Amino acid sequence: MREGSCAETVGRDILVDGYNVIKRAPSFQAARAQSLAAAREQLLTLLHNRYRHTPHQVIVVFDGDAAQEQASHMQRIRVVYSRHGETADAVIARLSAEARQAGRKVEIYSDDIEVQRTAVVQGGAAQTADQLERQVYEAPRDIARRTRYRVAMRRKYGLDVASIEEDEAPPPLPGKKKKKRR
């Protein structure tokens, strides 16, 4: 077995600057107004729902104030709180460097320019909080593909796409017709 093949089958490390995403993405504003804990919970739930069936390792880093760095796992998501005096940005840079040294691909979500620059310098991909928000709310690829196919078929056969309700039964497929029994 080749050395590089193991890293490709495992997936990539997705590092999220937790408070940066919560403060920048509009969808977290209502939860943030309630409490920061509610916004953290919402972020972790969205990330879990998006990445639960993938081989990617998702790590969300928050600024902490304990004497030592604290890490826990919540629904397949690794949650890291930085230690007092260390920023989440520094933890993200360290975790990114460790992942790249181990041969894993890294993707970082933050609006902080320094964090993005660090990711790019280390060979990773830098994304914004808006891109993460779009990604966690978009439909899975198979559902999006089926929806595009259905719309294309409705247009092809002259059905008005706008007037068809989602709850209506789909039109019967062409094929053999059943004979009525008397």
List the helices and strands and how they pair.
Elements (H helix, E strand, L loop, with lengths): L2 H8 L2 E5 H7 L4 H6 L1 H16 L5 E10 L3 E5 L2 E7 L4 H14 L4 E4 L3 H9 L3 E3 L1 H9 L3 H16 L26
Parallel strand pairs: 1-2, 1-5, 2-4, 5-6
Antiparallel strand pairs: 3-4
Entry summary:
Helices cover 47% and strands 19% of the residues. The protein is elongated and about 80 Å long. It has helices at residues 3-10, 18-24, 29-34, 36-51, 88-101, 113-121, 129-137, 141-156; strands at residues 13-17, 57-66, 70-74, 77-83, 106-109, 125-127.
What does this structure look like?
This protein is of the alpha/beta class. The protein has one domain: Rossmann fold, CATH 3.40.50. 47% of the residues lie in helices and 19% in strands. The chain is built from eight helices and six strands; from the N terminus they run H-E-H-H-H-E-E-E-H-E-H-E-H-H. The chain has helices at residues 3-10, 18-24, 29-34, 36-51, 88-101, 113-121, 129-137, 141-156; strands at residues 13-17, 57-66, 70-74, 77-83, 106-109, 125-127. A six-stranded mixed beta sheet has the order 3-4-2-1-5-6. Strand 3 and strand 4 form a beta hairpin. Helix 2 crosses helix 7. The longest helix has 16 residues, at 36-51. The chain is elongated, with a radius of gyration of 22 Å. The chain starts with a helix and ends in a 26-residue tail after the last helix.
